[in-house]
Amino acid sequence: MTSRIVAVLNQKGGVGKTTTTVNLAHALARMGRKVTVIDFDPQCHLAVALGVVSKQQSGIDEVMLGNADFAGQQIPVRDNLNLIVAGPRLQEIEQLSDSASRRGDLLRKALAQGTGDRDLVLIDCPPSSGILVANALFAAEELLVPMTSDYLALQGLSHLMGTIKKFEAALNKKYRLLIVMSRFIPTRRLSRDVLHTVKKYFPAQILATPIRETASLAECPSFGKTVFEYRPGWRSARDFEALADDFLTGRVM
Ligand SMILES: Nc1ncnc2c1ncn2[C@@H]1O[C@H](COP(=O)(O)OP(=O)(O)OP(=O)(O)O)[C@@H](O)[C@H]1O
Ligand SMILES: [Mg+2]
């Protein structure tokens, strides 16, 4: 069986990559999909958001360095949902400049060895465009780009699309690319204007449900809970349920 490998990326910080990864993954797991999330950010925010705090435990770092395999590094964190933590050496992989660690295909090679019974693997990328993001772009066939609706995010998006096009040309592949409108404030005119512009440039590539800005989503990580645990049935839980459905059925704006 082959897993869908999805990189959640945007080089801009704070746009909702980790929030999207955690809550979309949990929504999909609750729908019966077998999902593994990879914390691909040395800040370890994904693990924290899922309530896993040990920074010493090895994770995707040792998988990339060839010392551990994907299957063995998974930690079951919820029903149907496994986590692979970043691991203390992920930072080194980002920083070291010897030729082996500069290679962009460590993650792709590691995942090519097999991802077991997983339907989906979601990679929560760091806010950069360095070697880790290059590894995610080598490994993934699908890209999920969370995007906030402000002017600078729009600028950032065009930069990101340029990077993605370069990878497509160099790797001779074409990604399935979907945008998630995150931290959306429906009552704000700028939000609607930015959405209008994104729609114009990326027709049929924005998932149908925007994730609204809410206090509960901002509070979740401090409790190590997903929105389905922290505020079941509330607005943001419903947003993520709808988003998961959009993602599975390909429903776009
Ligand atoms: N829809 C939302 N409503 C309210 N707060 C949100 C929402 N989405 C994200 N946040 C909050 O905004 C901050 C940044 O979100 P998040 O960590 O998901 O972004 P990120 O893109 O992963 O950031 P980084 O680039 O640092 O990895 C966090 O404090 C998070 O709790
Ligand atoms: Mg993050």
TrEMBL record:
Upper taxonomic lineage: Bacteria, Pseudomonadati, Pseudomonadota, Gammaproteobacteria, Methylococcales
Gene3D superfamilies named in the record: P-loop containing nucleotide triphosphate hydrolases
Record Pfam families: AAA_31
Name the record gives this protein: ParA family protein
Domain AAA: start-end pairs: 4-174
PANTHER family documented for this protein: P-LOOP CONTAINING NUCLEOSIDE TRIPHOSPHATE HYDROLASE (PTHR13696), PARA FAMILY PROTEIN CT_582 (PTHR13696:SF52)
